[in-house]
Amino acid sequence: MIEINLVPDVKQELINAQRVRTSVITLSIFVGIAAIGAVVLLAIYVFGVQTARGLLSDDAIKKESTKLAQVEDISNMLTIQNQLSKLPAMHDSKNIDSRIFDVLTTINPAAPNNVSITNLTLDSSTKVITIEGQAANGYLALEVFKKTINATNFEFSKDGTKQTVPLASQMSDSDRSYGDDASGARVLRFTLSFTYPDELFSRTAENTLIVAPTRTNVTDSFVGVPDSLFTKNPNTTGGNN
């Protein structure tokens, strides 16, 4: 059997090119239809489904709001709930003022330079502690008391980091005069004030220590305060300022 190809090569190439063009055009049409379909589906979802869901949500909100409005004393209930939610933050912001007793016990020098406190003021707004006291050993005891306070540090842990800050800054003393105490002994009466660090009474300060030159006290754990730490005001008889 003999076959004779009567179609020239140029004609064959033209036919093949037409077939490729037809395939490309067909594929492009299908891709375009798919893209148009995707756009249509997205439009239906955005403008149809989302709108319907929004309407349903608005309707549910209106129904629940109507139910809440019918509850008796709802405004008072919401106010109390709001206040209750703020209790943890308020608790964290409260100061532990009881640490002042540990501070006073630690900074009081040993005899014969110990002092007795007649009045104590803790001003949390200005961060100032004011001590009115008396010392049987006179000016020497006062100087030892001041140097002890200046040399005392406050150690604590915050956010897992151990820190140390000086106990006092901007110290000053005034109203120095001699007088007689309750037993008739002659004592030096004085007023001393200093600024304390923010962390001293902060609840966020943990594992706290008050470290003086001669003693250390773990705050929040000291049970007893010596009776000799506080006393009555002496009768002023005169002295030097």
Please describe what this structure looks like.
The protein is an alpha+beta fold and 241 residues long. The chain contains four helices and nine strands; from the N terminus they run H-H-H-E-E-H-E-E-E-E-E-E-E. Helix content is 43%, strand content 27%. It has a five-stranded antiparallel sheet. The longest helix has 61 residues, at 9-69. The radius of gyration is 43 Å and the shape is elongated. 16% of the residues are buried. Mean pLDDT is 80; it is low at 220-225.
Task: Report a brief summary of the structure.
With 241 residues, this protein is of the alpha+beta class. The chain has helices at 9-69, 74-93, 99-107, 138-150; strands spanning 115-123, 128-135, 153-158, 161-166, 169-180, 186-195, 206-211, 216-218, 235-238.
Kindly estimate the percentage of residues that lie in beta strands according to DSSP: 25-35%
Record the strand order, biggest sheet: 1-2-6-5-9
Number of helices: 4
**Strands, count:** 9
Identify the overall geometry: elongated
What's the N-to-C terminus distance? Answer: 141 Å
As for the number of domains, it is: 2
Low-confidence stretches: 220-225
In N-to-C order, the SSE pattern is HHHEEHEEEEEEE
Helix content: 40-55%
Q: What does the radius of gyration come to? A: 43 Å
Strand count, sense and barrel status of the largest sheet are: 5 strands, antiparallel
Structural class category: alpha+beta
**What's the rounded overall pLDDT mean?**
80
